[in-house]
Amino acid sequence: MIASRRKYKLHNSQAVVAEQFDDRTQQHEAASLGMWIFLATEVMFFGALFTGYTIYRNLYTTAFEAGSHLLNAKIGALNTAVLIGSSLTMALAVHAAQTGMRKRLMTFLVSTMVLGGVFLYIKFAIEWVHDYRDGMVPGLHFTYSGPQASHVAMFFCFYFIMTGVHALHMIIGEGVMTVLLIMAWRGRFSKESHNHIEMFGLYWHFIDIIWIFLFPLLYLLGAHY
Amino acid sequence: MYFVVFFSLLTLTLLTWQIAYIDLGRWNMVVALIISITKTVLVAAFFMHLRWSASMVRLVVFAAVFWLAIMLTLTLGDIFTRNMVSQPQPWQASSVVSQPTTAGSPQR
B67: domain range? Predict the structure, then answer.
């Protein structure tokens, strides 16, 4: 480790407390409040999808269970575990930032990125490819011909839109993490100044929470069928 | 502490996954959602530090859940009670009741 890298360069533009705040506590609370308000809008965004899902699942219960039965619950459970693991490494990254451990912070950021990448790989390269081959993509390749096929197609529309939007959030998260990693490498974070990492942590855990609901609603609905 | 939360989350995932293969009728979804909510509380309280957050932040979280509850109750309350009037009441013109009962659902 080069000693100079350990020093946190602080010139005016990246001072610990921005001009408009009295102290670090106030700055931290303002950042948290802003992030949580953003997450509240995200709750409404995903909430609308969940509401729509609930309505149609109740109208076409059997078709939705049949559709869910075609999904691989084992892969879904594996992906849940991977995402929970990435949440753990993210929490540890925040902790490392709070205690000013630059190297640990970078290690945990990289592990979070890798776990997020594993999730996306399983999702796109394994699951979606299989879904396409098995003819479960409405509009592109849909071969389900059982009873209520159009309602099963609707389940898959919900499946692809909900997991797709969730994956999009993760891809954005991976991009932000790349920036944060470069900033950490340049020594932009310290014990006193790490709000970026903390706020991103909130975003990442929120994505985890969305998946915690998507997993039973999409994958487990038809498991006993 | 983070590891305790992590292993609890993994255990709950395993639990919800295995319970899903047992046919409990309509209770499958209830159990799955209870487990999901438990996991959410764990993530929010510990990973997202809500346990130690300022009350202002907690208020925003409460508001988010509250708005979601409004959206769910009012929307579902509307959709699932549309079938309840089966007979035309004396004060209703018969055309009112003979309209599609689940408007909004495509009749395919």
Answer: 53-81
- How many separate domains does chain B show? 2
pLDDT category at B102 given cuts 50, 70, 90 is low
Helix (H) or strand (E) holding A170: helix A149-185
Neighbours of A112 (CB within 10 A): 27
B6 and B26 housed in the same domain: yes
The answer to whether residues B21 and B34 belong to one domain is yes
Question: What is the SS3 assignment for B87?
Answer: coil
Q: Which of A85, A151, A213 sits opposite B36 (nearest CB)?
A: A213
Interface probe for B, chosen from A39, A59, A84, A152 (most Cβ of B below 10 Å), is A84
pLDDT for position B26: 82
Contact B60 A208 (CB under 8 A): no
